[in-house]
Amino acid sequence: MKIVIENTKFDFNVGCRLLKLKHEHSPYEQLNEIWNDIQPMSFGEIAQIENIEERRVAILCLGLERLSEQVKPKVLSKETIEKVSNFIDSNGNLVKEKYNDTYELCEVKGEVFGSSKWGRTMEDSHFVRFKDTSTDRRYMIWVDLKSVFETNRTKGGSYWYFNSETKKEINAIQCIAWTIQTNVAEGNIKEILRQGDCVFVKPIDSSKPLLKEARHLTEKEYRKLLKAES
Q1: pTM to 2 decimal places
Q2: Given this model, what pLDDT does residue 102 score?
């Protein structure tokens, strides 16, 4: 028997434990009798789910607040930057407003994820945490620090130069920039506009060919070229 959560199928036992995370009371009459006996899943157990989509849905059920409580992340970098964006006022007029966005780069120790199938301790993981531009919702996105490092280093940016010391050079803004990808070559971006998950990249010269593979944005591009966000 399967349980479907967010259009994703889970084995019955796993699905019940995820539903216990998501709901205070039984969402289905068929689960009423066993609801109080169901043990909600922990983040460590969720991290062991191999299927990426199932793991994503499971983390949604856990929620950011409980996830933070369980993994006890360490903040490696925190920065607030001032942005300007367009908003609609109470009279329906388009106005520009300044606001502050705070980003945090957090580290989760590998022990939290348990051991790999070879019995080795998992590597430390990292995510960038931030607040939604127009609401009080908080979000987190997992990032690959090695790739962030490589994206932002013009010299010696190879994985081979990434270690405990060079890791200290990585900041939260580099990480949030890394979450945006584009096939417009570096140096050919005029401006970047973002509305929710939709990112619009306007090239300086649209006649230049696009990259065959998408690349991550650099910190410099994010700071200088992001002109509007909502």
Answers
A1: 0.78
A2: 94
